[in-house]
């Protein structure tokens, strides 16, 4: 049996979520129903309702949109149908017909598209489809909302007679009008209408000469409105017929109402079904507004909320066009409890509330804004202690109230419980409150409960480090600016950055140092160590992101290098051909030079010609026969390779010249740094000022912290102004 405490729903602002969901409803009763949503008490009903919402959400992305479920409430009509001898008016009948049509359309549609919406079809199949009410009402009431003439033989005759009498009234009135107008007894307007009857506008002086009944007079008294005597008998007859018509209409409506009365349970089902569809639709629209999904629901107690958003924060930031930072949180058997520490305003409480609110939403049949590969589980209880719970009515302090809460937790906590505690242990003496909080945490741990807490207490951070199934976590901060990065990091406790934050907010160094002396040295060292580790973690996070980006770049560069390698290989082959060609020409040149030298010494022409002819024959034996066109192409290719080679050689020569020039230039004289100079490290960007110089080492003040740096590693940014 699942039970989530009302206090937990208040702490997590669940009512605000319901208000936002209800705004997506299109009916009044649906809106009211949405505001009453509570977590489901059984796993089966919850999973069933999650599927209903998820299937409705899927209808937004396909062509088979579910028909409209809008309706006018028939609550009053249902009450009337329970009372004997009552009858429904025409507008009530029209509402019942409209509701019947809407319900029939949806049920029929879901049956047709059962493959798309199996759970919705199963839900709708419990509703009976009948056209009896629709056909019966349509036979009696026309599309304008009037009772049809042929609704009964008597009504037909009455209306025929009414029309006939109206004709006689008009005819007799026209006769009187013409007669008295000819006698000039009538005013210029001639006629008017009083009490829905046509009357003559008689001049006051002639009222005794006109036969008829006085119906009224003008404001000035100059005109008397009279109904001619000839039309009066027809009017009385008309009144009688209209009364009989009204009686017959009431009889017909009573008969029709008696026909509908046995369908009362069905009409109640129709209304409940359409209210349920309105709420399901509203949940789906709400999910769609924040890209929510149905995560995998695990059978065991393990959850992984990847890229989880706080719904209220996400939608609020969406309106402001501001960024919302998602969190990734995992709870499982070997990491049941997470202790989040770190400075305030870093997002600890939001992370805690995100997990709690998403869990409550999921267990109320709503989809949640997480990554599609997320996994969730269900808890029998979700307990929370969030915010300042000082109780004025009960005269309880915050700490007393929190102790009452802890007592409730101890009674209810077990292996099927998720507990969420913000600022665990605060409100009392830090030493004693911390010890008591540690005992509570140990108790929750031994009961195998799952939970997330936020704290500033060092002993809780140490306990989380010592127990195997509790994890420390912290919210990342920028190590230089101390601005929050709104990113949860599991596996390491967070420093409260108490003194660093105080320094950043302008508290004098002297006061901060005095404060440091007042507390135990070991506490300062512990907090300082955590702060240092947190800064290192922050650096590693940045390095990790940078490495991912670099890895992507390297892969792109590798592809480019492969392409470049292929081009270089092609060029190398061309250069090799050029080199071989040039080597052959050098060899021939040497041979010709040797023959020239020999001829120079012996002056024997015949021997020279024989040697030259032999050399030409040897070279020609190596040649292949090519056409003039092929020869031209080869020559052009060789020329291109030569030009490319010359370009490369020219660049290399220029680089060598530049290197020689730089070697000749004298190095710049080194600047002597002094106390007060603004400097930065050779490979860094942060600028600080020199506070002290000792043995070729400088103490550089960066505002938030100071550091010892070798003088050789510093470069001058700005000399101290004298």
UniProtKB/TrEMBL annotation:
The keyword Ubl conjugation does not apply. It holds the Pfam family MutS_V. SUPFAM superfamilies: DNA repair protein MutS, domain III (SSF48334), P-loop containing nucleoside triphosphate hydrolases (SSF52540). Keywords: ATP-binding, Coiled coil, DNA-binding, Nucleotide-binding. InterPro entries: DNA_mismatch_repair_MutS_C, DNA_mismatch_repair_MutS_core, DNA_mismatch_repair_MutS_sf, MutS, MutS2, P-loop_NTPase. The keyword Phosphoprotein does not apply. SMART domains: MUTSac, MUTSd. The lineage of its organism: Bacteria, Pseudomonadati, Bacteroidota, Flavobacteriia, Flavobacteriales. This is DNA mismatch repair protein MutS. Residues 516-578, 626-662 form a coiled coil. Residues 335-520 form the DNA mismatch repair proteins mutS family domain. Residues 12-316 form the DNA mismatch repair protein MutS core domain.
